[in-house]
Amino acid sequence: MFQAPDILMMAYKQPVMQDQLVVLQERDRQIPGSVQYSIKRYQKNPHWNLDDMGMMVYHYKKEDPAQNYLELRFCLAGGVYCRRSARPGTQGASGDFECDGCRLNSSPTCSERVDTVDVLSFRFLSVHLSQFVRSQFAKPQPAGSQPAKPQPAGSLSARLQLAGSQPAASARTNKPEGTISDDLLEFRHPTSFSKTLSLCGRTRLALEALLNHSYTDSLENIFINAQSQMLLLYSLECMVGEKEVEGFQCKFLANEADRDKIIQARALLLQHIGEPLTIKELSRKVAINECYLKKGFKEMFGTTIFDFYQGQRMEHARYLLYEKGLSVTEVSVMLGYSSISHFSTAFKKHTGLKPCELLFH
To answer: What is the pLDDT of residues 283-315, one digit of tens each?
Structure first.
């Protein structure tokens, strides 16, 4: 199965250890007959420097069309979460769950206020996207029947269809020359891929609305369904004018078996966090040549094997030093370093601090 790069890791530009993540709020739901969505709000580490970004993930399984889906992922830094929202019985008269200081942004030092990194995803299955697909050719109308009523020009369905509309000439020549949006909505593009998306002002407004709304129950489902469709529209509009989607630059990654080998290599690196593997050893374990392994890893995960592994080691070292209270010597040995000085140099390069300085920050 195609595995897209982790958007939080790409926004952070290095691996993020799970033990670093403090979850403030989490929602993972399926709206009946519509989008499956996930919203996770993490407490932002003051040392993190992240970029806001979006990603489209297109998953295509020719032999099992039920597995096809289009997913939108977003990572936003700079949000604010009010801890009061997590406590029952604190909803204000205005309908929100924030204290007055956070809601009015009048007290940046409010004890309830937490800076956040927000990760959102919206998955659309092919059965849900079919409502937006316009047939390539008009069906013949029975004699005496009324022509189909066109969609209102401003409606969401019409705008989604417009993103994939065909020139009149193609209908006349009977040559279905689909645009990218047509190919994606109808799952005609032959290979899975992921593509980063720029965040326009409209996209940001929709995401902020999803993070800060006060709807509940059925009204919440209606609101999220509408906003997620707007995000789909804006994402497809970003791609209008492109003639084709670039699949994998490494052609061998079109083979699912080779993609699985790259995913397996990543898992092995995490399993051997204290026992460094050479690229030659890693390539033998997953049965793929070194060149393919290095190029495929960089394309699938957005970083080199060395940078990924080193980032994981240093984040684990930070955890062992700061959370577990182990000594610098103990941690350097656990992570496979032959000398404390080598470990200290690598740690400072990654974090900006020497291991012994960490506790003072």
So the answer is: 999 999 999 899 888 887 778 898 888 888 888
How far is Cα 23 from Cα 45, in angstroms, rounded to an integer?
Answer: 12
* Maximum pairwise Cα distance, the chain: 88
Confirm whether 221 is domain-assigned.
Answer: yes
Residue 206 CB neighbour total at 10 angstroms: 20
Residues written for the chain = 361
pLDDT at residue 232, as a whole number: 93
**Cβ atoms of residues 126 and 65 within 8 Å:** yes
What's the token pair of residue 345?
Answer: 């140099």
- Which residues span the domain enclosing 226? 7-131+185-239
Instruction: Using the structure block, give the residue that is written with the tokens 């592994």.
Output: 309
**Residue 310, pLDDT score:** 86
The answer to whether residues 219 and 291 belong to one domain is no
| Residue 75 and residue 53 in contact, taking contact as beta carbons nearer than 8 Å | yes
Q: Is residue 138 part of a domain?
A: no
